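Page 47, continued from p. 46.
Same chain as before, 1473 aa.
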Amino acid sequence: MSARGRCAKVLPSELNKVCPERGDEPATHPRKMSDFEVVPNLQQSSSSVSRSRRKAHFPTGTNEKENLISWIPENIRKKECTYFVESSQTSDSGRIVCECGYLREQHLDDAAKPPIYLGKEWDPSRHIQEMPTDAFGDIRFTGLGQKTGKYVRVSSDTPPRVIYHLMTQHWGLDAPNLLISVTGGAKNFIMKPRLRNIFRQGLVKVAQTTGAWIITGGSHAGVMKQVGEAVRDFILSCSHKEGEIVTIGIATWGTVYNRESLVCPMGGFPAEYVLDEENQGSLSCLDSNHSHFILVDDGTHGRYGVEIPLRTRLEKFISEQTKVKGGVAIKIPIVCVVLEGGPGTLDTIYNAITNGIPCVIVEGSGRVADVIAQVANLPVARITIALIQKKLSILFHDTYELFTERKLVEWTKKIQDIVRSRQLLTIFREGKYGQQDVDVAILQALFKASRNQDHFGRENWDHQLKLAVAWNRVDIARSEIFTDDHDWKPADLHPVMAAALISNKPEFVKLFLEQGVCLKDFVTWDTLVYLYDNLAPSCLFHSKLQKVLLEEREHTAGSKMPRLQMHHVSQVQGSSLRSLYKRSAGRVTFTMDPIRDLLIWAVVQNRKELAEIIWAQSQDCMAAALACSKILKELAKEEEDTDTTDDMLALAEEYEHKAIGVFTDCYRKDEERAQKLLTRVSEAWGKTTCLQLALEAKNMNFVSHGGVQAFLTKVWWGKLSVDNSLWRVIMCMLFFPLLYTNLITFSREKRLQPVGCLAHLRAFFTAPIVIFLMNILSYFTFLLLFAYVLMVDFQPMPSWREYLIYFWLFSLVCEETRQLLYDPDGLGVVKMASLYIKDFWNKLDICAILVFIAGLTCRLIPSTLYPGRIILSLAFIIFCLRLMHIFTVSKTLGPKIIIVKRMMKDVFFFLFLLAVWVVSFGVAKQAILIHNEERVEWLFRGVVYHSYLTIFGQIPSYIDGVNFNIDQCSPNGTDPYKPKCPETNADNKEPIFPEWLTVILLCLYLLFTNILLLNLLIAMFNYTFQQVQEHTDKIWKFQRHDLIQEYHGRPPAPPPLILLNHLQLLVQRGLLHRPAMHHKLKEKLEKNEEAALLSWEMYLKENYLQHQQCQEKQNTEQMIRDIAQRVDVLAELLDLDQVKRTGVVEQRLGSLEDQVHQSAQALRWMMQALRGNGFSSGEDVPAMGSSKALEAKEIDLKGKPEESRPPYHVLARNLLYPGSHTLRFPVPDEKVPWEVDFPLYDPPAYSADHKDMAVQDPFSLSLESLLKINYNTMDGLIDRQSFHGLYAVQDGLPLNPMGRTGLRGRGRLHCFGPNHALHPVVTRWRRNLDGSIIRKSLKKMLEVLVAQYPLSDVWALPGGSLEPGETLPLKLKWILRREFWPQFQNLLKQGTEVHKGYLDDPRNTDNAWVETVAISVHFDSQNNVEMKRLNSFLQGCDPELCIRWQVLDKRIPLHTNHKELLHKVSALFGAYY
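Result:
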């Protein structure tokens, strides 16, 4: 019973509001991820299949070996014969063998000793025992490129779950997305070269693209060899290991040649296997191109087919498993691919079709495959025994004599049943339109089978779409799913949209967007949390997010990991996006900008294609591109993998180019609106601007854009015209009355034009360029006055000039304080302080002020006057270095300052290398020359200072002993002003140190420092200079922004007059509490204006994307690729056309040959008749027609033939009788009527014993017991009268009025003859919430009451067999309360009879059958009192009984015979079916 049926006991109409039938109800969109049918916490990326496969093919590690050695013997067994019984047959070499096929010495020692209790006859169930397997590990095929795979020997009774566990857990295979079972001829056969190539390419393509497992017989022959060679060719054509395909061979252990080399009780790691086809005899070698082998052992030798039952069970078990792929759970689909084949292959196809497994038959491969392919398009009525006999005689010409008459009948019956299930049968024909590749045929077969499968609502379409997403086959989704057959609602696609995003399948995301998915509706708060929960584990952001959660758990001292929330994401991404996802006490059910959130999710995982698709949907596209560039650069700094870092930086640069491209189009259209985009405050991106994002991301290309520079220049000039010369500005600054002349011009923009004299004055002196020039003048004046005081006027008591310097410095301190505390955006003091400290020039300012304050403190103390002057001198140096910041505005000097700053880094690394040589040489020199120098200052001089000066040519005179002078040193080191003398002779005071050694050390030292290290430094400087020089223009344009922004928001008065502005600011903010003026380059627009601006930007973004696509198409390489692709397609179409033409010609030639042959026979007959005395009878006249020609016409017909309703019962002739192991005698359609002679007909007998039934006919067919039964009349309480009149009775048994069924007896039915049943069809109109009737294809839709009974997976009508003397079926009483039974009988009397007679039921036999009465009970009004009473009296007497109202259509999952009844009811009311 399905899980769906366990959820509730009763589902009446009122409950359907809560539990409606999915897919057809009015649209109710899921608003949280719990509504989606997805699996949470999926941590598997799209490459996990490849990784797991790669892992499986690598040599087994030590730990894996130990686990395997301990696990396999405990869980996997083999079979051994424990009793030797001599067989009448001998081995190939003529030796005596056991009944199991093994020699005596191949048995266990105890097996040769016959115990008394075992008996004499060999019995497999008693004499074959299981024991731990002794063959497993890695198999290596020698001499074939050292190919390695996995293998294991298993018992034929091994549970499939154990084998599946071995493959997925110990062999490292990921669960498949698709299972391809390839079957066919086990012997080598010949295929056409073109068909062979098409099959091989298609098979490996579908396996590789979908992550499928291919299962074959594993031997090096027949279809298994074809599959192996296909995999081999694919691996040889691949340049990397990502394309490895899982190919599993399931073979019989007893038929494997050279299997002794695989036996190793502790595992073979590896086991060497030799593929020897020449000496294999009747055995088979394993195929070297398979990756895994499961060798099935039943304890026998040389018997083929042992593996088939276990293979069937394993395939069924795998197909029942649920695979989590891309966030959705799907049952693993299975498909059977058939090439060639014999009788065993036909059984395999029949069993597959019976079990609902789709089959792909490759036409042209030979034998069984061609027989089925040639009759697949014919109506079942035309598939006769004679036709099958004819086909077999042609396609099995070598073995046709082995086919008995019964075998022909059985083949005809099976082929009829196979062709009858056309929805599960796909014929791959070479050259068929729309099916040029086998991979397309395989996937189409699965979709066709799924589409024709019974289902509720849109379950079937959902399943197909999940399969397409799991397989990553967007081409199949476009051609097979998104068709006119189904109308997809955007909300229906949300779960698979999430799966496509998580699995990184951009083509599907693009497809879903084309199908109407709106990202604003899709991305909710829950969706976003779900997506971040399923980040790719390999990405850096995932590990950083986990670290944030761990820190929070440690902070809260909790034992459980906190649930992921969006504020955790902002903590990872950085302060620039911290305001996007704030911590909230309540649950947040919406996001401010869903597209932004989804874009960030894709970008932090470095998913290029996904992010590009989402960015194309964004409205604030320029800010989004710059923000993505910033995020990627921040993550790239922390990424350890070099390749990933390069990818992130390349993607960041790509987004910068996108922003530049959009801004360029905007700037060309409208300069003013484009510049507004730069300064517009973007609420979606943390209340920042595009310009600010570009600066934070260091996007030099964007900032150096002509439009951005024009905007900065306009800001730099303020309300002045940019056409003014600098000398004019300086003249007006020095003599401001010149402003009222035409020497200076103001901006032409009306909003910037000053009106009035004071306005002109204010506009001039508040321009950033004027403020900058006045500050330069003020700063130079400060430095000149400072230098004068230090050198000329530094008195014990400060002079007025010195006091002026202090006052000046106080104004500078106030300005620095204002810059530190000025916070118009409300970022906070801590944030402002961090931003302030990050600036290099601010650090220099703080350093200069602190040093000045220290010097001033010492200067004011009389005892430290001189040290104070020294410290103030150092402060002067730092103040002078601050001048470099002023030069950044210069296009010539600005880049040079950058060069100096970067060269300082080079000097730092150089000094580290230099210090090694200086210290090493200095210590050695000091130790050699001077003995026990205890003065620290002279030690430093000798080791560091003298060694450093030596580099520049100041070589100590005493180092070589030539210029030694005893007077220049202190012998005992007592003179504080002289160095200690070197080692000298005590007598004549001459140096005794080794002069040759000191000279050599000096030469080596100068060689490495002067030549090597200094030239290295020069090279480093040259590289830095060249690197900066190439980007001089960009660097200057980028760095001038900081200067412009600083002076744009700076008070207009220069120091020390700036204190007046500070006082004014203090009064306004502190006393009057006026808000701060926004001097920064930001502008907050009105909503209407902002919406219009963003719409305009989005329009130009679309133009930019179209232009990019055109450029890509015009690219030479792309054009070459497109032309090559078109040529390939054209060549393929020409080949296909040639194949079609060849086929038609062959058919016509065959037809012509038949006509000539028939004509020759006719002429011969005429000649013989004329020679005689009279004419012969007409019976001997040959027919003037061609059967082949007629058949060719049938096969050539396009589309499916119209299949009318079968004239005979079908379900009653299924070969396997339900609920038993009894097989019916095969009865083809033509042999069903009793009137047709069928001498071979010998059906088995079967009658079940129903111990729980009070009344039942005898289950023995003895004539004595049967004569007691009265047929065609009332036999006590049992009604044996048929609705079809009198039926025949033969040998005491009634004959089924509809013909033969292949089984005698009464089967599982209670009585011989008719078994009466009652099936009420209770219906109502399907309505919307407003009460209106829902229509489909202009027809009203019905709902029918259905039930799912215990121990059944299928839904059924609430009815069944009538017990003798009862008026209501027992199953109907199960779902109705007792007090409602009389009322329901009244409803049945008022209903309409839609069927009365024979029911095609699988339980029917030759002597017992079901006849039913189907009565339609319809409630036309939704307020019908009887319907409400019925709903209230529905009950579930069994906890596993489920009842529901279900929409009525042809795909409703009911018994087939019940669906025929529903069809009649829908026709009665003219409703949709």
